């Protein structure tokens, strides 16, 4: 099941307190970026984030789910209504996220 634009818009609105939040549509789902780094995505209308140490610490009881069959598990963010928590989570994750990969020409 593909994610809806309405759910993407809701999540982006929840993260509107942060600068440089962007998304990229890919195969019916959305990849989410903060300041140029991928921090997670929206898959099947679920917000999933990378399991970097600070995210695991901030959500110790969160479920781990793959975004699609065969993918590495990510953290399911079930409290998407909490705008302050979401912004703090994404901002805290930034230092621990991998640097943007350069594409070969």
UniProtKB/TrEMBL annotation:
Classification lineage: Bacteria, Bacillati, Bacillota, Clostridia, Lachnospirales
InterPro entries named in the record: TfoX_N
Protein name in the entry: Competence protein TfoX
Pfam families: TfoX_N
The organism's place on the tree of life at top rank: Bacteria
Residues covered by the TfoX N-terminal domain: 13-73
């Amino acid at each position: 099941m593909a994610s809806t634009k309405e759910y993407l818009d809701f999540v982006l609105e929840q993260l509107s307190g942060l600068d440089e939040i962007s998304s990229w549509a890919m195969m019916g789902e959305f990849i989410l970026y903060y300041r140029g780094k991928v921090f997670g995505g929206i898959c099947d209308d679920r917000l999933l984030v990378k399991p970097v140490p600070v995210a695991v610490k901030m959500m110790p009881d969160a479920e781990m789910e793959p975004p699609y069959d065969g993918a590495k598990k990510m953290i399911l963010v079930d409290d998407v209504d909490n705008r302050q928590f979401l912004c703090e989570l994404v901002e805290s994750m930034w230092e621990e996220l991998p640097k943007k990969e350069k594409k070969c020409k």
